[in-house]
Design a protein that fits this description.
5 strands; 67% helix; mainly alpha; single chain; Neurolysin, domain 3
Length: 582
């Protein structure tokens, strides 16, 4: 594929802070530390009259920390060799612990005055606006150790569970095989040549095997830390805590997982058809991301300017304000797009609550995937744009809802493009969409099974690398089934995915599936009523930090505790699969 020769745009951060020596940067750090000190003094009095002032001070501290950390990480992410940026990221991570201590004290305060909370919420508009946060704090307080124990747990994080997580990060970022980094080897999974893909896969497995013992210790350390703290905090399981963090009921999770399991035969049909189009009997793990093609077909090469215009047009066709938002982001230096040495991989969106703006980092490729990545991240930015005037707590939505606007934007872009495509291009784009959805449904279900098994088996003792590999293979066989060659699976996916290595975030998997199915369900509603839906969509996004998943979905007339909704969303995907099979 030829590459475009255009100069790709970089972002402009100077209206956030000019640099790390900007007096406003140091000033904000001082203000943040002063707020934390003021909060500790206020909360130590344990008086219910302190609640109003406390939530306002907490919100201001949260805004300052997010603004500061987003800036430091943004600078670091486009130049990982910038030692000053790395020092500032570490400095702010350490400073964040002071805010974490304040939240522990706040939880103790609301627990002490639990009986007074309903009356206080009725009386105070300030507290009422933050009702979901206070409700969460009350529940979290029931699962909190003593203040001294919580403070000790925070101090031990850096040398405990977080350190095990950093070990995985350090190993994976420095690991190499066949003269290539792990990232380079994994990127070859998208190569057109099967021999290239297979060679990269074999080199990758060998590389992971060479470090399997320290990585197994790392995963055991993270999960044992999590299980120990969850037990001391009286959570029944890591999953129960995860559901609390996701603001999701067990009924919703059960309904969604059930529909995902029932959909597996349809996804296997898609994977078998892909094998047929690739001219092979059965897919290997290294074929999952292989591009399909036919003689004479050349995928469109997208320039950045074409991507910009198409995204603005597509967003604008949904709602004028969304199109204008995208136009503003492109015109005002909100996007950093050129890939280069020293820049982190992938893409992300970050927001600055003081400046009330967002920024998007990506590594633009002149493919439709490159275009959809920008649309996805701008979806996140649009979500923040709608919430920019809200208090910090109303902007604090769970991960289950964090992907709503991003996946909605991406789904809209794919659907608009596929509907206009003809011939093999239509099949090619449909396959790209299904390839991504398969990861969010089938592979996420695989990860969910694996993590459940890890928490259960670890009760019997530490798990060896061999144990972890066998458990991962079992999970892959249970989900991908006969669509993948059982002799060519990926036993080391437990080492690959950093999502397993956070002691504070167990089951960092199923929220992605919820985000996918919820967004598709919303998009299906848009197709039913294009005129009135955009206003409802904005209302839904505005509510994501103010209530739980059930309450947000109810605004759209959706009951997420029943299988019907998830089945309707899955039917949208199934129709795409059947179109691909034709």
């Amino acid at each position: 594929m030829k590459k475009t020769s255009e100069t790709l745009p970089k972002w402009n951060l100077t209206n956030i802070y000019k640099n790390f020596d900007d007096p406003s940067y140091e000033g904000d750090i001082k203000d943040y530390l002063a707020l934390c000190a003021e909060l500790k003094t206020l909360l130590s009095k344990v008086k219910k009259e302190a609640l109003e002032e406390a939530v306002q001070l907490l919100g201001r501290a949260m805004d300052l920390m997010e603004n500061l950390f987003s800036y430091a990480y943004a600078v670091f992410s486009v130049n990982t060799g910038d030692n000053r940026a790395l020092r500032e990221v570490s400095r702010l991570e350490e400073a964040h612990q002071k805010l974490a201590e304040c939240f522990v004290l706040f939880n103790s305060l609301v627990k002490k005055h639990k009986k007074d909370i309903p009356a206080l919420l009725r009386k105070s508009p300030i507290l009422a606006e933050r009702a979901q946060f206070i409700k969460d704090s009350l529940l979290e307080a029931e699962h909190q150790m003593s203040d001294a124990e919580e403070a000790l747990a925070q101090e031990l994080k850096a040398a405990g569970g977080d350190a095990w997580g950093r070990l995985q990060e350090a190993v994976s970022s420095s690991l190499s095989g066949d003269g290539k980094s792990i990232t380079e080897l994994r990127n070859l999974a998208f190569d057109r040549s099967r021999s290239v893909r297979k060679k990269a896969y074999e080199a990758e497995l060998a590389a992971w095997k060479s470090m399997e013992i320290p990585l197994a210790y790392s995963l055991n350390g993270v999960k044992k830390t999590a299980a120990t703290l969850e037990n001391r905090r009286n959570w029944k399981s890591a999953l129960e805590k995860s559901l609390f963090q996701s603001r999701m009921s067990a009924k919703t999770l059960d309904a969604m997982i059930s529909v995902m399991e029932e959909s597996l035969p349809e996804f296997r049909k898609y994977l078998k058809k892909k094998a047929e189009l690739l001219g092979i009997k059965q897919l290997a793990f290294y074929d999952l991301f292989a591009p399909i093609s036919e003689k004479g077909f050349k995928p469109k090469v997208w320039s950045f300017d074409e991507a910009r215009d198409y995204i603005i047009q597509t967003f604008g066709s949904f709602a004028d304000d969304m199109g204008l938002f995208a136009k503003n982001a492109f015109e005002n230096g909100w996007i950093d797009s050129p890939p280069h040495t020293g820049k982190v991989g992938g893409a992300y969106c970050t927001s600055f609550p003081i400046a009330k703006e967002s920024r998007v980092m990506c590594n633009f490729s002149p493919t439709f995937s490159g275009v959809s990545t920008i649309a996805h991240e701008l979806g996140h930015a649009y979500h923040f744009h709608l919430l920019r005037e809200e208090c910090a707590f109303s902007r604090a939505y769970p991960m289950t809802l964090a992907e709503t606007a991003s996946i909605f934007s991406e789904t809209m872009l794919y659907n608009c493009t596929i509907s206009k495509a003809k011939g093999f291009e239509k099949k090619y784009l449909t396959e790209m969409f299904l390839m991504e959805v398969t990861q969010v449904i089938v592979d996420i279900l695989c990860r969910f099974y694996f993590e459940k098994a890890v928490f259960e088996k670890q009760k019997e003792g530490p798990l060896s690398a061999g144990d972890l590999c066998n458990m991962m293979l079992d999970a892959q066989k249970a989900t991908y089934g006969d669509a993948l060659d059982p002799k060519q699976l990926h036993p080391y996916m437990w080492a690959v995915k950093c999502h397993y290595y956070s002691p504070d975030l167990g089951f960092y998997n199923y929220p992605y599936a919820f985000g996918q199915l919820f967004s598709i369900g919303l998009y299906a509603k848009y197709l039913e009523d294009k005129k009135r839906f955009p206003a409802l969509y904005r209302k839904v996004l505005m509510a994501t930090g103010r209530t739980d998943i059930k309450g947000v979905a109810k605004l759209a007339g959706i009951d997420v505790e029943k299988k019907d909704f998830f089945q309707e969303s899955m039917n949208f995907i199934t129709r795409m699969i059947r179109s691909f099979l034709r």
